[in-house]
Specification:
heterodimer; A: 293 residues; two-stranded antiparallel ribbon; 74% helix; 2% strand; B: mainly alpha; 4 strands; globular
Chain lengths: 293, 317
């Protein structure tokens, strides 16, 4: 294959990565932005979404498309419920003290991974795609499903944006983000907002996982990479800024697709982690954020 | 303040460990040697986290520096184990210093993520240079290379005594450190950085020094671990090994000299026991972290010290 088409392929793969990453990272960003909680268990919620999608595919009879549609609705709800439970039972009791919550979410990560290992097993398992359409381009064929993933991610992200900007729930969330105590004084049930936001963040990760699992198999350790990449995206985009997160996801996703196609993926990851560390040290507001104190 | 009680208690623990050399059955004998080496690592972590308030998620980088600093020298350059041990200690300290120069410009959550990222980069670097490090598969150090002078580290008895010696040095240095004026300044940084600054101490230098000492400890532990148990692998530099000392310290009691050892001992046997009844031992780690942070953030010895009031600090510095 010539260079041009090869680059196009790399960019298309990068776009799929970017779309899924944007979903996962926006969940992390939402939780950090509103609750100021760094959720290390975010990757575990992602993994849980994929594993539950596999179970759904086993239990729901009929064509794969039906099971997939069910999974797309049910899995985020279950994962969200688990997250809300974790928030109420653990994080709330810690008063959202930053360092304690990180330690607690590390514990949560271990517990969830172990649960997946015990119930789902150590093997990677495939989930069938809801449809198999091959898009024939002049140089190569491309999976129509992958393009559908990109479209679905855009729709979900638009939905999140609409909720945040144009609904009462979004207003309440933003009010809580700006000033928790004043929000409480105005009769907002902050505990419920936090549980809801934590559930929504985890649910976004679960949606991303359900979308990606027909491309990449479900495995109990699959949460590591999305967690690391989400961290990278959220930090480079500016902690807590949803717009920055989206821009960074696009940038990282596309460059990850291109770099891993042409260079060794391990080297790409080393560079990415070092960049993140240096961004945090020298430009903590992120590459696209503006400094706010 | 009279420090003889604390010294007596710590020497008593060391005497008990010496007695166990003669009394413990072989299975526990090996376990305790391993626990003592890991406890050195946890003590190093405690100097940064428990005393100075630097919650790092990247200490595996420093443990790995000691492990690979010693292991690669022995394996590729046929270096003497004694030399390799020293190199490992220095590698840990130097890397901690270098990381500290950058990471200590941040604090709190950002510090945790920066250290995590550096450790991840270090782990990936080990994998990237797989032709030297043999990546996840790791290096098995031959028996002949594990001679510390005339001491054969692959012999169970010798290994235990060497581990005990290193542990004793580390423990007594730790005790001296935290009771020294510098130790008090470390605690002052943890308690109130702004006020310490107003008293004329430079937080950056103090924290950098504490982190470097922590790195020396971690490097020593890593190097000793590699040489004593004859295995150097990337898994030992992975993120789990950053969490492990944190878990030990939280369990035993952050900011106590004996806490890291007690935490390592209990956690090691808890996981060992859990593995014998179920294969869900990761669950134990996770549940321990959550429960500790929820119900006993001071850990065992920290809680005892707080309950005992003024007498507590005399026994447990």
């Amino acid at each position: 294959m010539e260079f041009g088409p090869f680059l196009l392929l790399a960019l298309m793969e990068g776009l799929v990565t970017a779309a899924v990453l944007a979903l996962t990272a926006s969940g992390l960003s939402l939780v950090f932005g509103i609750m100021r909680v760094v959720n290390v268990a975010h990757g575990a919620f992602f993994m849980l979404g994929a594993v539950l999608a596999w179970f759904t595919a086993q239990w729901v009879p009929g064509p794969p498309a039906v099971a997939f549609a069910v999974a797309l609705i049910v899995c985020p709800l279950i994962v969200g419920a688990i997250a809300a439970l974790a928030d109420t039972a653990i994080l709330k009791r810690l008063n959202y003290e930053p360092e304690a919550t990180i330690v607690a979410t590390i514990g949560l990560l271990y517990i969830l991974e172990q649960a997946a290992l015990s119930l789902f097993g150590p093997d990677a398992r495939p989930v069938p795609a809801p449809f198999n359409i091959r898009l024939q381009l002049p140089w190569f064929g491309y999976s129509g499903y992958k393009l559908a993933v990109v479209a679905a991610a855009i729709i979900v992200l638009l939905g999140v944006w609409l909720i945040l900007k144009h609904t009462r729930a979004g207003l309440v969330m933003r009010a809580t983000q700006i000033d928790r105590d004043t929000a409480r004084a105005f009769g907002i049930n902050v505990d419920r907002v936090y549980a809801g936001v934590f559930a929504m963040g985890a649910g976004l990760a679960a949606i991303a996982a359900v979308l990606i699992v027909p491309i990449q198999q479900a495995h109990y350790l699959m949460g590591g990479d999305p967690l690391l990449l989400s961290f990278i995206v959220v930090i480079i985009g500016g902690l807590g800024s949803l717009r920055g997160t989206l821009v960074a996801a696009l940038l990282i996703g596309l460059s990850d697709g291109v770099i891993s196609t042409f260079f060794a993926p391990t080297l790409a990851k080393i560079i990415a982690t070092l960049v993140v560390a240096l961004v945090l040290v020298f430009r903590p507001q992120g590459l696209f954020g503006t400094r706010t104190t | 303040m009279n420090g003889t009680r604390a010294l007596a208690l710590h020497l008593g623990v060391l005497a008990l460990l010496l007695a166990l050399h003669f009394l413990a059955p072989s299975y526990h004998h090996t376990n305790i040697a391993r626990i003592m080496v890991l406890a050195i690592y946890a003590m190093g972590y405690n100097i940064a986290f428990g005393y100075t308030g630097l919650l790092s998620l990247g200490h595996a980088l420093l443990f790995g520096a000691g492990l690979y600093g010693a292991g690669l020298l022995v394996y590729h350059a046929d270096a003497h184990a004694t030399l390799a041990l020293i190199a490992g200690v220095l590698a840990g300290g130097a890397l901690a210093f270098a990381v500290g120069l950058l990471a200590l410009r941040t604090a709190g959550v950002a510090f945790m993520i920066v250290t995590l990222m550096f450790a991840q980069a270090g782990y990936l670097t080990i994998l990237y240079f797989g032709s030297y490090t043999r990546g996840d598969e790791g290096i098995v150090i031959p028996r002949a290379a594990r001679m510390l002078g005339s001491l054969d580290l692959s012999d169970d008895g010798t290994r235990y005594l060497v581990a005990l010696t290193l542990f004793a040095i580390a423990l007594l240095c730790n005790l001296a450190l935290v009771r020294s004026p510098f130790g008090r300044v470390m605690v002052a940084m943890r308690e109130n950085e702004e006020r310490s600054r107003m008293l004329g101490y430079n937080p950056f230098t103090v924290k950098l020094a504490a982190l470097t000492v922590s790195g020396l400890y971690s490097g020593l532990s890593g190097a000793a671990y590699g040489l004593m148990f004859g295995y150097v692998g990337a898994g030992l530099a992975s993120v789990q090994y950053s969490i492990l000392p944190m878990l030990y310290v939280l369990l035993g009691g952050a900011g106590t000299v004996l806490g890291p050892f007690l935490g390592a001992l209990l956690m090691f046997y808890l996981i060992d026991y859990a593995s014998s009844v179920t294969d869900a031992h990761q669950f134990v780690t996770g549940a321990a972290l959550v429960l500790l942070v929820l119900f006993a953030p001071k850990g065992i010895l920290g809680t005892i010290r707080a309950r005992a009031g003024a007498r507590g600090a005399e026994w447990l510095p």
